[in-house]
TrEMBL record:
Keywords: ATP-binding, Cytoplasm, Kinase, Nucleotide-binding, Transferase. Pfam families: Cytidylate_kin (PF02224). It catalyses: dCMP + ATP = dCDP + ADP; CMP + ATP = CDP + ADP. Its EC number is 2.7.4.25. ATP binds at residues 11-19. One of its GO terms (biological process) is nucleobase-containing small molecule interconversion. It is found in: Cytoplasm. It comes from the Bacteria. This is Cytidylate kinase. Its main location: cytoplasm. Residues 7-222 form the Cytidylate kinase domain.
Length: 224
């Protein structure tokens, strides 16, 4: 039954994971969990408390005490730390640049993965997007998608998105450089690096629009 499905979507930044995951959640009436937002929320709290990523003990304590929760709004999911709405704050450039360093810490990942698995256990159907969902968080997911696109295509998407939303934006060239740097960091780290699960379906969306990607995934769901 589609409402019982567990779907894992992994891939690099701006490959379309969160947009596609939200569409699937709506279409299949299942829960969406943005695991990147959890690492961003932790990074937001650490920067606020001035806890350096090198101070692993303090970051770990912060991560285990951190109360992150999501609230579904009509238009978008809101992210809260304690009772503060951090939905917009966690998307800021300073967070984006710092998040990989905090998310590379093993003890932090263990805590986040536990929280993610607990959420999956408490719901029936769920779609999660991140870097390690198919490999670590939900190794028994019914469907695993590895969504990717060239760094150029991804930089163009972020650029268009920033302009569309009226955010200040780096140049296209800088966005591409930042994307490559974060890809490297996320793929080279020792703990749960970004990589394809052996049983994941790879979709290169460089030349696909969102509808094409969604339809491709629906085809796979129908095969289950
Ligand atoms: O939206 P974008 O792809 O730029 O990033 P995100 O999904 O919000 O994730 C931000 C960062 O969190 C990533 O660059 C990873 O370093 C980390 N992350 C992770 O390590 N594991 C996950 N499951 C999700 C995110
Ligand atoms: O979650 P992730 O960082 O992987 O990517 P996203 O935030 O879902 O997508 C980044 C931007 O690219 C969004 O503005 C999407 O609408 C856009 N996008 C697109 O135009 N075509 C695709 N095939 C995928 C994403």
């Amino acid at each position: 039954k589609s409402e019982d499905l567990q779907i894992a979507i992994d891939g690099p930044s701006a490959s379309g994971k969160s947009t596609i995951a939200k569409r699937l959640a709506e279409r299949l009436a299942i829960v969406y969990l943005d695991t990147g937002a959890m690492y961003r929320a932790l990074t937001w709290a650490a920067l606020k408390e001035e806890i350096d990523a090198n101070n692993e003990k303090a970051v770990t304590e912060l991560a285990s005490a951190l109360k992150i929760h999501f609230e579904a709004d009509d238009s978008k999911q809101q992210v809260f730390v304690d009772n503060e709405n951090v939905t917009n704050a966690i998307r800021r450039d300073e967070i984006t640049r710092a998040v990989s360093a905090y998310s590379a810490i093993k003890t932090v990942r263990d805590i986040m993965v536990d929280k993610q698995r607990l959420i999956a256990k408490q719901t029936t159907g769920i779609v999660m997007d991140g870097r390690d969902i198919g490999t670590v968080v939900l190794p028994d997911a019914d469907l695993k998608i590895y969504l990717t696109a060239t760094p150029q295509a991804r930089a163009r998407r972020r650029y268009a998105e920033n302009n569309e939303k009226g955010y200040s934006t780096e140049s296209l060239a800088t966005l591409e450089k930042d994307i490559k740097a974060r890809d490297n960091y996320d793929m080279q780290r020792e703990q749960s690096p970004l990589k394809q699960a052996s049983d994941a379906i790879v979709i290169d969306s460089s030349d696909m629009d969102l509808n094409a990607v969604e339809n491709r995934i629906i085809e796979e769901i129908e095969k289950l």
